[in-house]
Amino acid sequence: MTEPPEAEPSANGPLVVEADSVTRTFGPVVALAGVSLNVRRGEVFALIGPNGAGKSTLMKILTTMQPMTSGTARVAGFDVARQAQDVRRRIGYVPQLLSADGDLTGFENMMLSARLYLIPAEQRRRMIHEALERMGLHDAAGRLVRTYSGGMARRLEIAQSTLHRPDVLFMDEPTVGLDPDGRKAVWANVAALQRETGAAVIFSTHYMDEAEGVCDRLAVIARGRLAAVGAPAELRARIGAGATLDDVFTTLTEEVPA
Amino acid sequence: MTGRRNAVGDYLTQLLAVADAEVAKLIHDPWDLVSRAVQPILWLLLFGQVMAHVRGIAAGDGSYIDFLAPGVLAQSVLFVAIFYGLSAIWERDLGVLHRYLVSPAPRSALVLGKALASGARGASQGLVIYACSALMGVKLSLAPANMVGVIALILLASALFSTFSLVIACIVKTRERFMGVGQFLTMPIFFASNAIYPLAMMPDWLKAIARANPLSYEVDALRSLMLASGHSQFGVGTDFAVLVGCVGVLVIVATRMYPRLTE
Asked: Do B96 and A101 touch (CB under 8 A)?
């Protein structure tokens, strides 16, 4: 077993996300203006930016949910535009909206994912029970998800999105609307999974403190462009002694030309 | 289940996963099935009883109720299936659709899984309508081959109209617009067909529309297979061919459009 990732966890791990000049326009509106970005296996990577900066659009493009206007991107070694199905087999995605079905039980939601991801029939039940156990949802497995708290539903979705051991886990604002305990539980679970599987985790957030505590590197994104990419400490040093990540965020998002 | 998996088995696993999830929801909350069963009973009981006394309807050999029962079955399958587009939009708004679309399941397996689920709902309507018709003295055919044919028709028609509804949903994209368009489409599909009166009664222009309406072919085959003394006007083979053809085209179109619902 390898050590848990440090600040520079896997400087020579293989690239699992390679985005090159990814651009997306909606008519005259430029949502993404040439974003280039690399993420390595085992990295926890945060996308930070104000609403409408392009975080969700970038994530939807990388998860094959939306086409790009120009540029190229490879995820888990496959081209997102031309090999979408190969990409989908190797990624997990927790969308911003709650994607677990409230009218099904936790177990049924897991079974749906297990079958969609073609987990062999004889392993499904065991893997689902293990995953639910790990997420602290075992006792709630038979309950309809609409009776879950926000944090429980999120943990279920993470379990659903990682059952097939993805190379990259994408999470779009995974802790929005959760109370502090719920947020803590989500990150504890993601960290454990990440250590265990070595997957890369890419998430977007508004919460600076959250990014700082959890990620190896982060990208500040504003008006469809990357304002900066680096380790939290590195970016803080760039702004000046004693700068917080909030200062970094404010300074960098203001610097980007409209 | 050992050894290498095969593509067909994988496809069916994914298709059935989608259908099973829908059926599980019905089992958790059967209220929807119960409330939907009321409408066809009312058609048979109220509309059927009154119209049976209207002399002008040439309903063939049997009584008007015999003529009406297959039409009411087709109608309830239509009304159940046409709701699937709305539920797709609803799933998009909730976020559930993302979970399907980000999975490696082929889009056509997702579309067909939903279509099959619609068929399961339709089949439950079929049971109610058979029971109600029998109580009202409709001379039903219970020959196994005919029953299998009726189930196949319910599945085909459910697939046809649920997929059609999905295509509409992908075009209009919002619940509000779908509600309007859905009403606007369902009524003509139902009334411009042979479901509650024979084609022979229609003016020529309406007859032309009814002959282009797949619901007419469904009803035609149902009349032949459901009733003891039933016969088909177009030929059951033609009926099935039209339905299969329509389903094929709609599944291809829906498969292309479904992913765009999240954009």
From this structure: yes
